[in-house]
From TrEMBL:
<feature type="transmembrane region" description="Helical">
    <location>
        <begin position="347"/>
        <end position="366"/>
    </location>
</feature>
<dbReference type="InterPro" id="IPR011701">
    <property type="entry name" value="MFS"/>
</dbReference>
<feature type="transmembrane region" description="Helical">
    <location>
        <begin position="112"/>
        <end position="134"/>
    </location>
</feature>
<dbReference type="InterPro" id="IPR036259">
    <property type="entry name" value="MFS_trans_sf"/>
</dbReference>
<keyword id="KW-0472">Membrane</keyword>
<feature type="transmembrane region" description="Helical">
    <location>
        <begin position="293"/>
        <end position="310"/>
    </location>
</feature>
<feature type="transmembrane region" description="Helical">
    <location>
        <begin position="251"/>
        <end position="273"/>
    </location>
</feature>
<feature type="transmembrane region" description="Helical">
    <location>
        <begin position="54"/>
        <end position="72"/>
    </location>
</feature>
<feature type="transmembrane region" description="Helical">
    <location>
        <begin position="88"/>
        <end position="106"/>
    </location>
</feature>
<feature type="transmembrane region" description="Helical">
    <location>
        <begin position="146"/>
        <end position="169"/>
    </location>
</feature>
<dbReference type="Pfam" id="PF07690">
    <property type="entry name" value="MFS_1"/>
</dbReference>
<keyword id="KW-1133">Transmembrane helix</keyword>
<feature type="transmembrane region" description="Helical">
    <location>
        <begin position="17"/>
        <end position="34"/>
    </location>
</feature>
<feature type="transmembrane region" description="Helical">
    <location>
        <begin position="322"/>
        <end position="341"/>
    </location>
</feature>
<feature type="domain" description="Major facilitator superfamily (MFS) profile">
    <location>
        <begin position="21"/>
        <end position="436"/>
    </location>
</feature>
<dbReference type="InterPro" id="IPR020846">
    <property type="entry name" value="MFS_dom"/>
</dbReference>
<keyword id="KW-0812">Transmembrane</keyword>
Length: 450
């Protein structure tokens, strides 16, 4: 095949993957993130009062989700590697949709804790499985672009989800006498079940099985992916098995970097609606339920725009260490400063900078593990990194609530968020200077160059 013909096949193959798989998997992620953060919208709108929850209890309920997720995340991703993404991601979605539906009838703090834990068990493996699935469909040079398109679902979940949650909550008592926050849980659970069933028939495990690719496109994608796999086999000793993924210092460094970003992400996700609800006492302003939902969404729309263009630059240049470290340091400074602003608008503007920082870094971060891990080691390594991130998810919810109860404000909790994000930036700069085992300086990936 001529170079021009190869270029045409390459362009069409990547375009088809981007249009046929990424939007659907991103929609799955949208529903996934909405279901796990729906509790943040319910809390200040009746749930905390009805269940008599303190800030620490709400934080614990928010965070215990991640303990259930952690228990089964690595086994779940290995099962996905063995049985295929189509079956496993569909199974996960239907399972978590059923559990999410049960929140409609929760009647105690203990019941809330149990269901949040069970939701984590049901969702275990979805996010790293989706990341791995998309990474195995495109060559490394396209992953930043593909993962950025996928990651757009996360900030857009709040942009769309916050007003949606507010609209559902406003139907207080309108459906079978359910309180508004209970009806909101019902409304966001049903789509997960429906999408899970659709995913069983829509997803395809590998390019060779995709009917929507031409024979030439299948051959090109398969050859490119197999070539990368062989190259990893020849240049890295970290790819050869499950044990190597868990014994890799680079994997553990990536775990800690991800911990810092996810701690910040979920501190904002779980407590931003509550912080906005406190504007009346802090600034003397008053907002109705829909206005609060729209204000909650404000930081995430610019975050989606920044995510897209920052990842586009990373795709053009190759992912560099500063594509991840610079957002980490920016977020580390902006998140505590938000609490020292003198108006709701200035506070939300500073929180917006934090949200932009977190979302700019995350899709580029996820291009790194599959650069030096493959096969079962990649499945385990990606799951391990996300597991440590989920520990951050639990920690941020519980510690933020506990520190608020201890100090009476969110100042100290947000300084803790800033500290963890600064740690992520420092570690990113440190590992970027370390060559991979068995790789010469001239062979280092773009992440190691400045």
């Amino acid at each position: 095949m001529s170079q021009a013909a190869t270029s045409t096949v390459e362009t069409s193959a990547i375009r088809k993957v981007a249009w046929r798989l990424v939007p659907f998997v991103a929609l799955m992620f949208f529903v996934n993130y909405l279901d796990r953060t729906a509790i943040s919208f319910a809390a200040p709108n009746g749930m905390n009062a009805d269940l008599a929850l303190s800030a620490a209890q709400f934080g614990f309920a928010s965070g215990i989700f991640f303990l259930g997720y952690i228990l089964l995340e690595v086994p779940s991703n290995l099962a996905l590697h063995r049985f295929g993404a189509r079956k496993w991601l569909a199974r996960i979605m239907v399972s978590w949709g059923v559990v999410a539906l049960l929140f409609t009838w929760v009647d105690s703090a203990g019941g809330l804790y149990f269901l949040r834990f069970l939701l984590g068990v049901a969702e275990a493996g979805f996010f790293p499985g989706a990341i791995l699935f998309l990474s195995l469909w495109v060559p490394a040079r396209y992953r930043s672009r593909i993962l950025a398109l996928f990651y757009l679902a996360q900030p857009l979940t709040t942009v769309i989800g916050a007003p949606l949650a507010a609209a559902l909550i406003q139907h207080d008592g309108a459906f079978f006498g359910l309180a508004g926050w209970r009806f909101m849980f019902f409304g966001v659970a049903i789509p997960a079940i429906v999408l899970g069933i659709v995913a069983w028939f829509y997803l395809v495990d590998r390019p060779a099985d995709a009917r929507w690719l031409t024979a030439e496109e299948k051959a090109w994608l398969t050859a490119e992916l197999e070539g990368e796999s062989r190259e990893k086999s020849g240049t890295s000793h970290e790819k050869k098995g499950l044990k190597q993924a868990f014994c890799s210092g680079r994997v553990w460094a990536l775990c800690l970097i991800y911990f810092g970003f996810i701690y910040g992400l979920y501190a904002l996700a779980f407590f931003l609606p509550t912080i906005i609800g406190g504007f009346e006492a802090q600034f003397g302003t008053s907002f109705d339920l829909m206005q609060k939902g729209l204000i909650t969404a404000i930081p995430y729309l610019p975050a989606a725009v920044v995510l897209y263009f920052w990842s586009r630059d990373a795709t053009r240049r190759g992912v560099r260490s500063w594509h991840i470290a610079l957002p980490a340091f920016t977020g580390a400074v902006s998140v505590p400063l938000a609490l020292f602003m003198d108006s709701p608008a200035a506070t939300v503007a500073m929180i917006t900078i934090t949200a932009c920082s977190i979302f700019a870094a995350l899709p580029n971060f996820w291009t790194l593990p599959t650069r030096f891990l493959d096969g079962a080691a990649a499945a385990a390594g990606v799951a391990l990194i996300n597991t440590i991130g989920n520990i951050a998810g639990f920690s941020s919810g519980y510690l933020t609530g506990a520190l608020h109860d201890l100090t009476g404000s969110y100042t100290l909790p947000m300084f803790v968020v800033g500290g963890f994000m600064a740690m992520a930036g420092v570690l990113m700069l440190l590992i970027s200077r370390q060559p991979r085992p068995g790789v010469s300086a001239s062979q280092r990936p773009a992440m190691a160059r400045h």
